[in-house]
Structure formats: structure tokens, C-alpha cells
Amino acid sequence: MSQLHVGCLYEIFEYLNDDRSTLHSCILVNRLWCEVSVKIFWRNGCDYSVSNFNTLVSCLPNESKEILSKNGITILTKTTKFPTFNYASFCKVLSINHVRCKVEELLKNEQTISPQILEDNTNIVVQEICKMFMNQISSLEKLILIRTPTFIHYPETKDCLKNLSELHCYSNISSKTFYQLSQICQNISLLDISQKSPFISDGLADLVSVQKNLKHFILTQYFNDTISSLIKRLPNTLIKLNLRDFNFISLLFITEFSNLQELELSFEYKEDFIDFDKLSYASFPQLQILKFQYLRPNNEALVRFLENNGKNLKELYVGVALGYNNSNNSLNSAISKFCTNIRKFSGGFKNNELELIFKSCKYLKSIEIFCGDYLLNEKEALDEVVNYSHKNVTEIILHYYYSHIQTAELLPNELESFIVRWASSVPSVPQRSLSFVIVTNDYCGWGLTNEENMKIIKKYYDLGVIKDFKIRDYDYYDEFD
Questions:
Q1: 317, β-bridge pairs
Q2: What helix, strand, coil percent values describe the chain, rounded to 5?
Q3: Which Gene3D superfamilies match (predicted)?
Q4: Are the beta carbons of 25 and 38 closer than 8 angstroms?
């Protein structure tokens, strides 16, 4: 088969990355399909199951197997046949914590041993598997670290990590490790740092300062004043900045990054928006995504920020107001005036506030509506969507605000009435289709997904009116493994 044929197959199978069942079926078609599919199937180490790690153990070199045997670790596969592929070489995404968890589970399944022996044996197996990864992976793309790794000292590590593009790590990993990483990895494009303790390794700032192509920086910060030295080292090449759980740090440093295309401020307390009033005067001419995941700044400052930066926005997530009785009128007016090019919008609304958004934002495709308490309930929100939305809107997301307990109130007949009205609400579109998403949490929102409502959704899914339906748990952000 030509190399072009292989390349085409690989691109096609890329779309099956999240459909493990179908991807596994492709493995069974023929040898070519198997060779291409298995590379994708084994690419993301975060998806490896316990059985995958059992296979990896069988791939270990004889030297490593002898080490396991000498330590009484009996998880070697029963067959003497070497695996068909060198599976470790296909890995492009590696989470050391995931390796540890699955190896520990594998050991527990094999025999009953004391906690101390389990920990010791886990360390040995993880070390040998990581040694194999460093030796077999030609170029790792993404690495996730929550503790100091042992493989950093292996000779093969330099070649394995030299082209690393994503690093997700805790800030208290040893300075020596960060220093060694700074000698190897200088072209990281995404750096995700979570500060889990007041201690920050000195080597972390060095790692940041040597980056030549850093585009995306994510910082989850829980302890004040200890992160400023790191922030000062950030290069002006950044185009994406995500700040989460900030504590008492001025936001004015953001003005240094005039090329930002994406800015996310995910704060739980209004005190975290230090100096946002001053930041609101800054101009970010390339900004396309602005996101406030939890709370948002006061309306006056946010309106001013949108006046300066709203014209190029494609996605806007305004979160919720700092106070329950805050008026959204000035903010909605600002959005309708300054943010007319947005495709995705997320926010909370009171009665008759959605009309202005739909009227002005003609390119809007997806709208996420926070429901409950002083905001619109489900029925009110869906009524306003049907009454005021235009033909470009194809996705509706109902989001139950995480901190307020309530029971979903949308009755089956109300849900069906909405779907029927939606399908015929735009005369120029014979049957208007809908992507419908419900975001729930432990306290509320589950009532909307009761058996009767699910029957109605399935009915209109089968009829093609609902083209996609999802139920998502509320997720502040994706904490790395």
C-alpha cells in the first residue's frame, strides 16, 4: 500500500479517537487497518486501562522483567509470546499519575499484599514502565506530572522530551527536575501549572524563562504572593491565558500580553478581581474568547472592557453577577452594541433580557443559559429562546448554577411544546434542528432528565429534530490527572 493510503487512513481514524469501540473494530478489519488504528488506540496514555498496562508489562525488556521477578512481582503475562506491536512506542500523551494508579490496581488484582509491599512494588513497576517509555517513545507530545519523576535521570529522556509541546505539572516538584526539564524542553507551547502548596520550586521560573514558543499559559493559584516571580518570566508570545482560583494578585500584568486571543478568569470570589477596573482600559486587538467561569467583575468595569475589546470576540462567557440583585441591563446593552460578532455566548438572564442579545448578535450559534434562583427558570428560558432566537442558533445549553439548590421544573408537556415550537419557529427553515445540552450538578438539574422527559427527547431525536443531546456534570475546569 502507498504511504499516501496510510496517511489518509490515519487522518480518517483520527476522528474516532473518542470512539474507542469503533476504533477497536477497525483493528479487526485487516493488517493495514490494524497497524494504523492501533497507533491511535495507544496514543493517549491517559486512556490506558488496567489490561493495557498488563500488555505493557509483557512488552518490558528482559532486564526489567528480571527485576520484577527478583522482587517477587508476579504480574507477568502467562504467555511467552511477545506482543504483536511495540505498544509503548505509540504513546504521545503520558500521565505518570495515571501509570501509577493503574499499575497499583493491576497489582491489587493479582494478589493480596500489605500496603507497604504494594507501594514498594508499584514504585518498581512504574519505574520500569517509565524507563521503557523513555526508551521507546521517539517524541512525546504531552506530559503530566504531579510529583517528582525518576525517569528524568535516564539517558533516553532527552530525546523523548526534546519536542514536548505540553507540560501539565504541580508547582512543588523538585527544583532539580524543573532545571533538567529547562535544559531539554525549550519549545513548550502549553504550560499548565497548579500551585498545590505555598512552596514553588526555584527551577520553575527558569523553565518558564527559557521557553521560545510559549503560546498558552494556565495557572491555578491558591496561595498569594508566592507566584509573582513566575509571572514576571512569562514571554510576550502568549496568545492564551487562563487564570484560576487567584488570590490577591493584581491583574495588571495581563496588559503585557497585547497579542492575547483568549483570556479566561475563573474566580470564585469578587476579591480576586484586583485591579480589573484598571485592566478594563487596556486594548487587546486580537482577543476572540473572553471567559468568566464563575463570577464576573462589576458591570461597569466589564462594560468598559467590552467597549475596548468586544468587536473581535467570537466567544463570550460572562458568568454570573456578584450580587443576586445586580441588573444586567447595562451589560446586555454593551454586548448588543460592542459584541455583535459573537458565535457562542454564556450568561444568566432575567425576564425579557434575551431579546436584545438575539436581536443584535446575528451570528450567534450557541447560547448557554444559567437557570435558577433570581434568573430565568427552564421554561422561561426556553420560551424566550423560541420567541426571539434567529435561524443561526442551533445549540441551547441549560446550566444550573452550581451553588444554588433547586429542583428542575420543566414538565414533559412543556418540554415537548418547546421542541415542537422550536422546529417550526423559523419559516425559512422547514425543520429546524437542535443540539440540546443540560449541565447539572450534585444539587439540582437532574429533575429535567427524568424518564418521561428522556422519552420525549428520544422521540424527537429519532425524528431528526434533536440532532445531538448531552448531559454534562458541572465542571469548573479540567484538573489534570
A1: 291, 346
A2: 40, 15, 40
A3: Ribonuclease Inhibitor
A4: no
Q: Would you state the cell numbers that stand for residue 409, as one nine-digit string?
A: 421544573
Q: Which residues of 267-296 are buried (b: 16+ CB within 10 A; e: fewer)?
A: beeeebbbebeebbebebeebbbbbbbbbb
> To which residue does cell 427524568 refer?
450
Of all helices (H) and strands (E), which one includes residue 93?
strand 93-95
pLDDT in tens, 118-154: 999 999 999 999 999 999 999 999 999 998 888 888 8
Q: Would you tell me the crossing angle of helices 50-59 and 115-136 to the nearest 10 degrees?
A: 60
pLDDT in tens, 304-335: 999 999 999 999 999 776 444 455 778 888 99
Q: Which residues have C-beta within 8 Å of that of residue 416, sequence separation ≥ 6?
A: 456, 460
User: pLDDT tens digits for 186-244?
Assistant: 999 999 999 877 777 788 888 999 999 999 999 988 766 567 778 888 998 999 999 98
Contacts of 4 (CB under 8 A, 6+ apart): none
- Measured over the CA atoms of residue 12, residue 15, residue 17 and residue 21, the dihedral's sign is negative
